[in-house]
Amino acid sequence: MRNFKKNDSGFICAHCGAEVPPLGYTSRDHCNKCLHSLHVDIIPGDRENECKGTLVPVQTLPDAKKGFIIIYKCAKCGSTVRNMAARDDDTELLIKLTAVKG
Fold first, then answer.
1. Predicted model pTM
2. Which of 11, 25, 61, 101 is the most exposed place for a label (fewest CB within 10 A)?
3. What is the sign, positive or negative, of the torsion defined by CA atoms of 81, 85, 91, 95?
4. How far is CA 78 from CA 33, 70, 96, 101, in A?
């Protein structure tokens, strides 16, 4: 992706409080336990978005090549954001969210 900035820091999830470790292969940007994220990026990894709202996972879309795509809705500004699931994400929650219509 053009202008992608790798930022693979671990963090404490603002939604569920889980300790989220770095991924090691790309930027970590959401909790692997509850899938929530923060609306912090304009370009993936840049952490320059002023919104800083909570990104709530509302649906997942299975993708044959990428695994799951997580669809988020920002609780603060209402924006919709798409993101690839990580290898260590809660698989049961990813599957459960495929039945939801965003």
1. 0.86
2. 101
3. positive
4. 23, 16, 22, 16
